Amino acid sequence: KQEVTQIPAALSVPEGENLVLNCSFTDSAIYNLQWFRQDPGKGLTSLLLIQSSQREQTSGRLNASLDKSSGRSTLYIAASQPGDSATYLCAVPDTGKLIFGQGTTLQVKP
Amino acid sequence: EADIYQTPRYLVIGTGKKITLECSQTMGHDKMYWYQQDPGMELHLIHYSYGVNSTEKGDLSSESTVSRIRTEHFPLTLESARPSHTSQYLCASSDGGAGIRQYFGPGTRLTVT
């Protein structure tokens, strides 16, 4: 059974820092991996989707990497801003459903 | 960009009332999902559908029911609301295939008093 874990559960950094969020999964036979952002009390916004054949995807200050063999993905946020404060979730598809990690709650302090 | 809608966005209702949370999408997606999320907690899949007249229970047991009569519409119903149903309910749809990409609605925050 696929399991997805995110470390750390919470992270607080000063504005301007570069940071890395981690996601690991137990079954490396995945089709893709998706990173989401969730603001408090809101729905999920898809940030990046990496196909299994890709090593990384970039969108603005965000860069997501995927290492299937080790069952890991990282989300790199460059030059963090207070507006980046949110919960970040990773998810992988499994038997027609998405399996989510518990999320990393990020706070970027001005 | 994805177009998936949920109404109402916020609902405060008394115990024992019947409620229906609406979810609709305009992308023609066959697959739709309902998640329940308590504040600060994980998402839990409670229902999903792979197409019209197809519904399945998710990983978390729920007293709610769903129906899928039209592709674009996936409403969730609670016959008798209880305070334990207080939560955020998120609807999602996907473009299918083995590699699922899900698009989420804005959510409905339900409070049962």
The oligomerization state is heterodimer
What Rg of chain A is obtained from the alpha carbons, in whole angstroms? 13 Å
Helices and strands of chain B, in order, run as EEEEEEEEEEE
Residue ranges of chain A: pLDDT <50 for 5 or more in a row?
Answer: none
Average residue-wise pLDDT of chain A: 93
Strand content of chain A: over 45%
Q: Which structural category do the helix and sheet elements of chain B fall into?
A: mainly beta
Order of helices and strands of chain A: EEEEEEEEEEE
Description of the molecule:
The complex is a heterodimer of chains A (110) and B (113). Chain A has 110 residues and is mainly beta. Helices cover 0% and strands 60% of the residues of chain A. Chain A has strands at residues 4-7, 10-14, 19-25, 32-38, 44-51, 56-59, 62-67, 72-77, 86-94, 97-100, 104-109. Chain A is globular and about 40 Å long. The model of chain A has no long low-confidence stretch (mean pLDDT 93). In chain B, 0% of the residues lie in helices and 50% in strands. Chain A binds chain B through residues 31-32, 34, 36, 41-46, 49, 51-52, 89, 91, 93, 96-98, 100, 102-103, 105, and chain B through 2, 6, 31, 33, 39-40, 42-43, 45, 48, 50, 58, 88, 90, 92, 98-107, 109.
Architecture blueprint of SSEs:
The complex is a heterodimer of chains A (110) and B (113).
Chain A: E1 4-7, E2 10-14, E3 19-25, E4 32-38, E5 44-51, E6 56-59, E7 62-67, E8 72-77, E9 86-94, E10 97-100, E11 104-109
Parallel strand pairs in A: 2-11
Antiparallel strand pairs in A: 1-3, 3-8, 4-5, 4-9, 6-7, 7-8, 9-10, 9-11
Chain B: E1 4-7, E2 10-13, E3 19-25, E4 31-37, E5 43-51, E6 54-57, E7 65-66, E8 76-78, E9 87-94, E10 102-104, E11 108-112
Parallel strand pairs in B: 2-11
Antiparallel strand pairs in B: 1-3, 3-8, 4-5, 4-9, 5-6, 7-8, 9-10, 9-11
